[in-house]
Write a sequence for this structure.
C-alpha cells in the first residue's frame, strides 16, 4: 500500500489561511476604498499556498534502486536541487510574461485579456489532471497492487478518478471555450454567431459521451476513456462558444470564469486541498452570479444565451432600420450649446465608446461642463460593453470619479428631470421598444429611459446600422432626439472644441 | 482528508462565495473577474506537486508547464487587478 505521507497539521492550516485570504480578497471588492487591501490579501494568500506546497514537496532525487512504488518514507531523502531550480525558473518565466502583459495591456482590451487568462487556468487544470493520471503516487491518490505474476501497478482510487475526469473535462472546456471567446473579443474572429446545423444534438450527445467516458474511466482505469474525455472536452468547448454572438460575451466570459473555478475545485477534491476547494467554490459562484446578473440585464434565460445564435436570424419585431423616417441631425456646436445650457447631463456610454477609445475625450467634455456649473452623471447599463463592469473600468481609467458613475436602478428615475441625455456608443440598452413592443426580441429587458430627458443627443456612426439585437431604435426618430453622426471620439473632441 | 469533510468545506465555501460576491459593487465587476482569475490559479499547487515528483518524466514536464501557465495568471492577474483598482478615485 502506498501510504500518504503523514500530513503536518500546520500544512493543512496554512492552506486554510490561504483560502480565508482569498475570501477576504473578494470581500474587499465591496467598495473601491477597500478593494486594494483585498487584492493584497489575495496575493498574500497565494504566496502562502505556493510556499507551503514548495516546502512540503521539495523535489527528491531518486536513490539507487528506487521505484515509484516504494513508500517514500522508507527511503533516504536527498533533495534534487536541479529540479528545484527548474521549478523556480518555471515560476520566473510565468512571472515575467504575466507582469509584462499586465503592465502593457490597454484597458479597452481587458475582456480579451480576461478570456486569455481563463484559457490558461483551464489548460493548467488539464495538465495537472493528466500529470495526476500519469503519476498518481505523487498525488497520494492511488494504492499499489502487487500481483502474483508481473509488475506491481498503481490503482487510482475510484472517487479520485471521477474527480480527475471531471476536472480535466471542465478544464478542457474552459480552455477551448476561452480561446474562442478571446478570438471573438480580440476581433481575430467574426463576432457573428456561427451556427452549425444540428448543433444542439451534437452538443448534448458530446456532453453525454463525456460523462459516460468518465464513468468508464472510473470503472476500469483504462487509458482510452481518459484521453477520449480530454479530446471530446476540448471539442465541446469550441462547439459551445462559436454560436454565441459578440454582445452576449459578458455572459460567456462570466460563465467561463465560473468554469475555471469549478475546474480548480475538482482538482482540489483530487488533492484534498482546502485552499483549492475554497477558491474553486468562490470563483465558481462568482462567475455563476455574474452570468445571472448579465442574463437578467438582458431579460434572457441562461439557456437561451448558451444555445446561441441571438441576432443572427432575421427576427420579426421592430423590422429593419426604417431609413426613410424623419430624424434630426445635429452638429458638435449644437450639442455643445445644449449641454452648456443644461442643469444636468447624464452620459450613457456603451461598447461603441470602448471601440472608439473615446473615454478620455468624454471625461474632458465632462470637466468642461462642470466648469460651466452643469451637473454631470454617468449611467451604466449592466450589459454595456463586453464584460461585466467594462464601462466602469474605462471611465475610471479616464479619471472619472466613481461617485459620478451610477447603476441603472439608481439613476433611471432621474432622466425625467434631466436636460440632456448623451448616448455614446450604446444602442439596444436605450431602446424603449423593450418596454412597449411585445414582439421585439429585446422585450422585457431593463433599459435606460433616455427618451424621458428633455433632449437626447445620440452619437452614432451612421443611420443605417442597427444594434446587436438587430432592431431599430425608436429613440432616433423622436422629436427630442438629435443625432450626432460621426466617430464617437471625433465627435466628442469637436464638442469639447466648440465649448471653448 | 476523507471525501465527506472535503465536500463539507466545498459546500460551505459555495455559500460564502454566494454572499461575498453579491456584496461586490457592480462598478468593480471587471476587477472581480481579474482577481478571481488570479486566485483560481491556486491550481498551481497541483502543478508544483507534479513538477517536484520524481519517477515519471512525462508528469514532471506537464507539471512544469502547468507551473508556467498558472504563474502567468497569478502574476498577471494580481498585477492587472492592482492596476485597475488604482484607477478608481473619489471626487475631488
Amino acid at each position: 500500500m502506498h501510504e500518504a505521507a503523514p500530513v503536518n497539521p500546520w500544512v493543512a492550516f496554512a492552506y486554510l489561511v490561504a483560502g480565508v485570504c482569498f475570501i477576504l480578497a473578494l470581500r474587499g471588492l465591496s467598495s473601491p476604498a477597500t478593494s486594494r487591501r483585498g487584492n493584497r490579501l489575495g496575493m498574500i494568500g497565494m504566496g502562502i499556498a505556493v510556499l507551503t506546497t514548495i516546502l512540503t514537496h521539495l523535489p527528491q532525487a531518486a536513490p539507487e534502486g528506487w521505484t515509484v512504488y516504494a513508500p517514500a518514507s522508507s527511503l533516504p531523502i536527498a533533495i534534487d536541487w536541479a529540479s528545484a531550480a527548474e521549478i523556480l525558473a518555471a515560476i520566473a518565466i510565468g512571472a515575467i510574461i504575466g507582469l509584462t502583459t499586465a503592465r502593457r495591456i490597454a484597458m479597452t482590451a481587458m475582456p480579451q485579456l480576461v478570456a486569455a487568462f481563463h484559457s490558461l487556468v483551464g489548460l493548467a487544470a488539464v495538465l495537472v489532471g493528466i500529470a495526476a493520471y500519469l503519476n498518481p503516487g505523487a498525488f497520494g491518490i492511488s494504492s499499489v497492487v502487487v500481483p502474483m505474476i508481473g509488475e506491481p501497478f498503481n490503482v487510482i482510487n475510484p472517487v479520485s478518478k471521477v474527480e480527475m475526469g471531471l476536472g480535466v473535462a471542465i478544464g478542457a472546456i474552459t480552455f477551448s471555450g476561452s480561446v474562442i471567446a478571446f478570438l471573438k473579443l480580440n476581433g481575430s474572429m467574426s463576432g457573428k454567431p456561427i451556427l452549425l446545423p444540428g448543433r444542439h444534438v451534437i452538443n448534448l450527445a458530446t456532453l453525454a459521451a463525456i460523462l459516460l467516458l468518465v464513468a468508464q474511466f472510473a470503472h476500469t482505469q483504462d487509458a482510452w476513456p481518459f484521453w477520449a474525455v480530454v479530446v471530446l472536452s476540448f471539442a465541446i468547448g469550441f462547439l459551445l462558444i462559436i454560436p454565441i454572438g459578440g454582445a452576449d460575451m459578458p455572459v460567456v466570459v462570466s460563465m467561463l470564469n465560473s468554469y475555471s473555478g469549478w475546474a480548480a475545485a475538482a482538482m482540489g477534491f483530487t488533492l484534498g486541498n482546502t485552499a483549492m476547494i475554497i477558491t474553486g467554490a468562490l470563483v465558481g459562484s462568482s462567475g455563476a452570479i455574474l452570468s445571472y446578473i448579465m442574463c437578467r440585464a438582458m431579460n434572457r434565460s441562461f439557456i437561451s444565451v448558451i444555445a446561441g445564435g441571438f441576432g443572427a436570424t432575421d427576427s420579426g419585431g421592430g423590422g429593419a432600420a426604417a431609413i426613410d423616417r424623419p430624424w434630426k441631425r445635429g452638429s458638435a456646436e449644437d450639442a455643445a450649446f445644449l449641454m452648456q445650457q443644461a442643469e444636468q447631463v447624464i452620459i450613457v456610454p456603451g461598447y461603441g465608446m470602448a471601440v472608439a477609445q473615446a473615454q478620455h475625450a468624454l471625461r474632458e467634455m465632462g470637466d468642461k461642463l462642470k466648469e460651466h456649473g452643469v451637473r454631470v452623471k454617468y449611467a451604466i447599463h449592466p450589459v454595456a460593453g463586453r464584460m461585466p463592469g467594462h464601462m466602469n473600468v474605462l471611465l475610471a481609467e479616464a479619471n472619472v470619479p466613481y461617485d459620478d458613475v451610477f447603476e441603472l436602478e439608481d439613476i433611471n428615475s432621474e432622466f425625467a428631470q434631466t436636460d440632456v441625455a448623451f448616448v455614446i456608443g450604446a444602442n439596444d440598452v436605450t431602446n424603449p421598444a423593450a418596454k412597449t413592443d411585445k414582439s421585439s426580441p429585446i422585450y422585457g429587458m431593463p433599459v435606460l429611459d433616455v427618451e424621458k430627458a428633455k433632449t437626447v443627443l445620440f452619437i452614432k456612426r451612421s443611420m443605417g446600422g442597427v444594434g446587436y439585437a438587430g432592431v431599430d431604435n425608436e429613440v432616433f426618430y423622436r422629436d427630442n432626439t438629435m443625432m450626432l453622426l460621426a466617430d464617437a471620439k471625433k465627435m466628442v473632441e469637436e464638442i469639447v472644441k466648440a465649448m471653448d | 482528508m476523507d471525501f465527506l469533510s472535503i465536500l463539507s468545506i466545498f459546500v460551505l465555501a459555495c455559500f460564502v462565495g454566494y454572499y461575498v460576491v453579491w456584496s461586490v459593487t457592480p462598478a468593480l465587476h471587471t476587477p472581480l473577474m481579474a482577481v478571481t482569475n488570479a486566485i483560481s490559479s491556486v491550481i498551481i499547487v497541483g502543478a508544483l506537486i507534479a513538477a517536484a515528483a520524481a519517477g515519471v518524466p512525462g508528469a514532471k514536464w506537464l507539471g512544469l508547464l502547468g507551473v508556467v501557465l498558472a504563474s502567468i495568471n497569478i502574476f498577471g492577474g494580481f498585477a492587472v487587478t492592482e492596476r485597475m483598482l488604482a484607477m478608481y478615485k473619489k471626487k475631488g
